[in-house]
């Protein structure tokens, strides 16, 4: 719990529901919003924070993050609080670090271990992971999805075809995760082994989510040339399973597909009109970030990282993979969606290539781009890259849709990560609200707060209303922003003044107090307690 009484005085208060701001005082008592008054309040016992000239809003809800193991880092990490984010949804894109047995953990570490770099992963069930995170002490609140890849690795290993009892085991593991507090089920259908799944498998697991009131969040099978088919598959899974649907990081990827953003938005609208409870999330950048092996056809990864590196040593296999990659169909990877100049290497065991584009690596080594890609992935299957795949006009079209909220898709705040890790929310409020007027401030704040709280059933959060938990962000709309680029991504956020977690002031005058005051938010549990 935080301070017994905090008085946020004379700020412009936004409820997070899309209403215009109004000058008011907000009284916080015992971790909750006690009152919001248009008449100045006098509470002598309260800690008074003057919010004149600043916006007072609900704490931001990051609907799409990969910060799963951040609480296990040795020091508290305020990179989300300093943006005004008080709650994150993690376990996205089919990637959660439970449930995983010993063999599954080894495979996961080989393929996506950079999402846990610096942290010793442990085998175990979903409940054990949530307990471990809660015991370590999150810096901000976290709610977790159970990842399809974790379920598949534990039930079936890295093999493409499911064994006779694998789906039933996946369903049992998923049910255990929901009983432990998972808020939904996620897929990453460009990442192995989840990429090998058919619609029947996905629907069966989404039905488990529906039984527990969870949603289905998906990194779709294709976000470019076959976007329409991928969206149709996602909607069909949600409809057949009877679950809510979250389309992860809505985008139109690949230069040849630019201009299709209006079609994506129309598909979201049509699905809602047809009875599917679907929304999406988006980060405010034209470049994404993922593992370098996502550029390769998914068949290259069958059997795990060892089999992958062996394949990539074979010239005939590389030639076959290149033929598929050039084709650019679902399952063929992202190679055809970008050029070597669009691929910036941000993590690799060879430090000499970090910060270089694939084109620059090719010039240094006099290699063909696809051969260079295969060599780099073979040397480090966990290598990561920032990929410039989107057009700015498409980013703005998607952002303007009321059906798409804000999610950072952030990784760990270590090394040369994508700037979205440190700056997604200030970038929306600074660049896209203040500078470009793609959104007005009340609507942007709705997308940043109640939108995600509603979709992920984060009861009592996401709005400034009496009785709600006092997760609050105070910022200057004229100053909020993030000055950074892909080679210097972790620059400071400007304009965020005060952040409260359940009534405790954890950021004051832009300075983090060092506390680990966040909570693990479990579906069906108390809204404040872990």
UniProtKB/TrEMBL annotation:
Database matches in InterPro entries: Amidohydro_3, D-aminoacylase_insert_dom_sf, Metal-dep_hydrolase_composite, Metal_Hydrolase, Metallo-dep_Hydrolases_sf
According to the UniProt entry, the coiled-coil residues are none
Q: Do you know which Pfam families this protein is assigned to?
A: Amidohydro_3
Q: Which branch of life, at top level?
A: Bacteria
Task: Provide the Amidohydrolase domain boundaries.
Answer: 49-507
Name of the protein: Amidohydrolase family protein
């Amino acid at each position: 719990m935080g301070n017994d009484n905090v008085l946020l005085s004379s700020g412009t208060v936004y409820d997070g529901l899309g209403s215009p701001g109004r000058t008011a005082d907000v009284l916080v008592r015992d971790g909750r919003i006690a009152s919001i008054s248009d008449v100045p309040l006098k509470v002598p016992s309260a800690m008074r924070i003057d919010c004149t000239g600043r916006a007072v809003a609900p704490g931001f809800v990051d609907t799409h993050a990969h910060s799963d193991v951040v609480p296990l880092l040795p020091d508290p990490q305020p990179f989300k609080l300093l943006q005004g984010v008080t709650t994150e949804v993690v376990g996205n894109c089919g990637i959660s670090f439970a449930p995983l047995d010993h063999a599954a953990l080894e495979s996961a570490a080989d393929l996506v271990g950079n999402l846990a770099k610096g942290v010793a992963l442990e085998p175990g069930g979903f409940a054990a992971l949530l307990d471990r995170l809660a015991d370590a002490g999150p810096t901000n609140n976290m709610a977790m999805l159970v990842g399809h890849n974790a379920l598949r690795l534990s039930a079936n290993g890295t093999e493409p075809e499911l064994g006779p009892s694998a789906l039933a085991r996946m369903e049992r593991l998923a049910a255990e995760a929901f009983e432990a507090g998972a808020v939904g089920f996620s897929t990453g259908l460009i990442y192995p082994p989840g990429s090998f799944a058919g619609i029947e498998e996905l629907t069966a697991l989404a039905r488990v989510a529906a039984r527990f009131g969870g949603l289905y969040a998906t990194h779709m099978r294709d976000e470019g040339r076959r976007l329409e088919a991928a969206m149709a598959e996602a909607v069909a899974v949600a409809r057949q399973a009877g679950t809510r649907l979250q389309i992860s990081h809505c985008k139109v990827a690949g230069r040849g597909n630019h201009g299709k953003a209006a079609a994506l938005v129309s598909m979201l609208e049509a699905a809602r009109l047809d009875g599917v409870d679907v929304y999406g999330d988006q980060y405010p950048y034209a470049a994404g970030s993922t593992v370098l092996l996502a550029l390769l056809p998914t068949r290259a990864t069958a059997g795990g990282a060892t089999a992958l590196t062996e394949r990539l040593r074979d010239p005939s296999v590389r030639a076959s993979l290149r033929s598929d990659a050039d084709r650019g169909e679902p399952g063929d990877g992202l190679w055809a969606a970008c050029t070597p100049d669009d691929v910036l290497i941000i993590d690799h065991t060879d430090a000499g290539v970090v910060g270089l584009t694939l084109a620059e690596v090719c010039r240094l080594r006099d290699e063909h781009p696809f051969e260079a890609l295969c060599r780099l992935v073979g040397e480090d299957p966990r290598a990561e890259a920032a990929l410039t795949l989107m057009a700015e006009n498409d980013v703005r079209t998607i952002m303007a849709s009321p059906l798409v909220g804000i999610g950072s898709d952030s990784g760990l705040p270590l090394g040369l990560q994508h700037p979205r890790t440190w700056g997604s929310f200030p970038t929306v409020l600074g660049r896209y609200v203040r500078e470009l007027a793609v959104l007005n401030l009340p609507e942007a704040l709705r997308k940043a707060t109640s939108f995600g709280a509603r979709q992920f059933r984060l009861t009592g959060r996401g709005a400034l209303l009496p009785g709600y938990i006092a997760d609050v962000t105070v910022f200057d709309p004229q100053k909020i922003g993030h000055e950074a680029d892909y080679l210097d991504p972790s620059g400071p956020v400007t304009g965020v003044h005060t952040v409260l977690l359940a009534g405790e002031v954890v950021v004051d005058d832009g300075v983090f107090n060092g506390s680990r005051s966040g909570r693990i938010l479990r579906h069906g549990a108390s809204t404040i307690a872990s």
